[in-house]
Every structure is written in C-alpha cells, then in structure tokens.
Amino acid sequence: MLALSDSPRLFYDIFRRLVDTLPSGGEEILHFLSHIPTPGAVTAVIVTWLVLVRACRWRRYNAIHRKYEDKWDNGRGEITPEEAQEIVNVSFMYEMPLLLNYAVAFALFKTYGIPSISSLLVSTKQLKENVSRRYADTELMIATFFGCPISGFSDPSFHPDPSVPADDPRAMIAVARMNYLHSLHRIANEDYLYTLSLFVLTPSLWASRWGWRSASPLEQHAYYIFWYEIGKRMGIKDIPDSLQGLIEWSEDYEERNMIPSDSNHELAEYTLDELLLKSSGYRIEEMGPPRFENAGHEEVMRRAAQLQGRPVKGPWSLEGRK
Predict the structure, then answer these.
(1) What is the pTM of this model?
(2) Shortest CA distance to 165 belongs to which of 321, 319, 318, 305?
(3) Any stretches that span the bilayer, and where are they (predicted)?
C-alpha cells in the first residue's frame, strides 16, 4: 500500500513525465522543483500545473485572436469568409465541438416552431419516416461547410486560373447538394433567412450559457461572415448587412411567425430524441431523403463547379467514385 509520505514523490514523478513532454524548459522546471522542500514542491507543482493547463486551454483562442484582431479592429476592419472559417473552426472543431454541435441541432429544431416551415416538412413525410437520416445529413453538410475550405484550396490566398480544379471542392458540393434538395420544394426566402440566422446566433448563445467560455466579439462576427457567405451561395436574398441587423431581423421574424400549430407539435414528436446523430456512410452528393439518394448527382456537380468557379475533379467528382 502507498504510504502517505510517498504521495509527494509520486506526484512529482507524474509531473516529471508531463514536463518531459514540453518542447523546452522542462529540465529547468524540474531542477527548480527538486530544490524546494516537499510541501512547497507539492504546492509549486499544483500551481505550475494549473498555469500549464490554463496556457494550453487558451492557446488556440489566443493564437487566432493575435492573428486577426488587429485586422478586424473591433468591427472597423473586415475579415474574409475564408478567414472567418478559420476563426469559427477554433470553437467548432477544437474547443467546444460537442456543445456547438448540439447548438446547431437545436437551431434546426427551433425552426419547427414556424408553421410555414413545419407544415412543409410534415408534408414531405421525411422526418416521420427518416428522422435520423435527415438530422445526419444536416450535420454532415454543416460539418463539410466548416471542415472543408470554402475557397476550394487549403491556402485561402491561392486563387489560380478558374480552369484549375479546386484542391478540395467538398464544401461547394455540399452547398450544391443542399440547394438541389431545397429546389424540389417551394420555400419562402424569409424561412431560409430565419434558419440561417439561427445557425449564426445559436452557437454564441449556447457558448455563453453552457460553454467553458463565451464566444468573443471576433468569433461572433466570424460566425456571421461565414454564414453570410453560405447564405449568398444558397441564393438567400435580403440578408442583413450586420450581425446586429440579423439579430433584430430574427427577433422580429419570430414575433410575427412563431405561433402554435399542429405541424409544429407533430415535428417535435418525431425529433425530440434525435440529438445524437449518426450516419451509415455515403457520399455528399447522395445526401437527402432516400428516395432522392440517386437523383440529381450531375446537377449537383454542375452547381458545385459553378459555386466554386472551377471544375470538380479528383476523388470527389462523379468520375472519381468509379
């Protein structure tokens, strides 16, 4: 059995292994700690550990703000959609992925409180029969928007001749597939815009309420710029030209349109437990209701090439799947 007197030494040995993983400065820290009396060493180890955790936890946040805060200049400057995507990915991909994934799922769920949206979804019967597939498709499309460069190139500053295929066209293939599926139905521009506004606003709200940190003003602006670009490529009109304008528009839309209806309740019954999203695996151009899984692939690729401004080639093209 471990004696109480052995605990500081064990703690020190564990900490030594952790410090050994540091790129530099580890030996100096250990040398310093080895000359401190045992109680002081334990205290020093705990304090050092807390400082180390704090530094590591905030390093991505600090790095992305150092990179873009001066350019953004608290709203007086501008960031590009590609830069906004890089900023957004810090919180979505690394720091709060589970929470923000739930935030996006809830944003989608919240649209079911709008009768014009819920009645359309009920009429398609897709949520009743394929609710998991629909949620999985939405998650995968959004993950593709975030995870794949919307410019089509890993280096967003690289803009070759339009005849040069994109390195990675998956983001625009996802947008094109989404546009194709939406084109099969008559959807009001206001309903599109409201859904877009929730994707912009809900992650920041959830981060401030339940995250380990809030979204910074730069990140909130980046959410807006990124989704504004996606909205443009979806053909959504009259997107407010500022984040505050979008907030006010969204609140006004809810006051006018969020009212009880049977279709709202019916959709809620189908989807209340659908927050853990899974996919059995399929290609981007196959997303959507199963009855459309094999439909519109050529049209999707044509639209993707149009959105990207260059041809779709390689493993993501229709030829690449063969």
Answers:
(1) 0.73
(2) 305
(3) 29-52
13: which 2 tokens? Answer: 């040995």
* CA distances from residue 3 to 9, 14, 312 in whole angstroms, order as listed: 11, 16, 66
Instruction: Judge contact between 225 and 84, C-beta under 8 A.
Output: yes
Tell me: the pLDDT tens digits for 162-196? 777 888 889 999 999 999 989 989 999 999 999 99
276 and 131 in contact (C-beta within 8 Å)? Answer: no
The residue type of 62 is N
Alpha helices in 111-188 (DSSP H): 115-124, 126-147, 170-183
DSSP 242: S
Structure tokens at 61: 């946040």
pLDDT in tens, 41-77: 677 777 777 777 777 788 899 999 999 999 998 888 8
Name the residue type at position 284: I
- Cα separation of 262 and 283, whole Å? 35
In the block, which residue shows the tokens 């006004």? 252
Contact yes or no for 293/136 (Cβ under 8 A): no
Amino acid at 121: L
d(CA 65, CA 61): 6
